[in-house]
Amino acid sequence: MKSKVIAAFFLSMMISSFASADRIGICAGCHGLDGNITDPLYPKIAGQQLNYMIAELKAYRSDARQTPDSGYMGLLKGYTDEEIRQISEYFAAQTPKPGIVEADEKVIALGKSIYEKGIPAKNVSACAECHGDKAEGRSKTPRLSGQNTSYFVKQMIWYKTGERTGKMMPDLVGDMTEEEIEAVGLYLESI
Ligand code: HEC
Ligand code: HEC
Predict the structure, then answer these.
(1) pTM
(2) Do residues 130 and 70 share a domain?
(3) How many whole angstroms separate alpha carbon 186 and alpha carbon 179?
(4) Could you give the CA distance from residue 73 to residue 1 in angstroms, rounded to a whole number?
(5) Which atom of ligand 1 is nearest to the CA of 69?
(6) Model confidence over 90-99: pLDDT tens digits?
(7) Do 84 and 6 have their domain in common?
(8) Beta-carbon contacts of residue 106 (< 8 Å; ≥ 6 apart)
(9) How far is the CA of 131 from the centre of ligand 2 (A)?
(10) For a pocket test of ligand 2, which of 172, 173, 179, 186 has the largest count of ligand atoms closer than 8 A to its C-beta?
(11) Of the four listed, 94, 103, 145, 180, which is most buried by Cβ atoms within 10 Å?
């Protein structure tokens, strides 16, 4: 009796890990097998915070996260909570890599300053307060370090226009100009 239960347990473990391996391959098509895709259309997800990733994948599944690009994530509809957790654990465990950024030193310095100190005159808070000194994120606050600049810029603009909703960010983006947003993006991609 006991051995039957154990055999059933191992069989179910094997099936679920095969199912997830298959699905990781699908994600890898756009995000890279190690989550460090450099094609700027797609976000890097290597080393992304586990709780943030699980929350976002469930938000795509329920259509709570809808952006002009969220259609790419329509495949999440058929995923179970357990699959979402396993796939997220795999990508969260990958090592994030910075991008190769070619930008003026002054632009990077502006981005770093906004990231660390905000823009007091415009009431823009320091990003580091929530996203961490090294932009590593924490729990449901995402890692931003290494992220592809054009993905980053698009999401910031969509928070501004209301095309991406969120509990915190829409108010925080405030009056940042596109140049300021891009400077922060370039700084973050470089670290
Ligand atoms: C056809 C390409 C494609 C496939 C396949 C794909 N993604 Fe995505 N993914 C995208 C795009 C594009 C976005 C950005 C969408 C948006 O604007 O919200 C995204 C967003 C995400 C995000 C949010 C990133 C962030 O920083 O907020 C996560 C997490 C993610 N994908 C994980 C996955 C996982 C896990 C799979 C496999 C189950 C997967 N993706 C499959 C293209 C894809
Ligand atoms: C009070 C805390 C807080 C501050 C300050 C803050 N953020 Fe965020 N940020 C969050 C949280 C929480 C999320 C995820 C939930 C959401 O979408 O609102 C997020 C999400 C994001 C995302 C989406 C990331 C992705 O992978 O799609 C970007 C980009 C971002 N923040 C950039 C910034 C920048 C740049 C600043 C500084 C100008 C900043 N944040 C300041 C809490 C904060």
Answers:
(1) 0.92
(2) no
(3) 11
(4) 43
(5) 17
(6) 999 999 999 9
(7) yes
(8) none
(9) 7
(10) 172
(11) 145
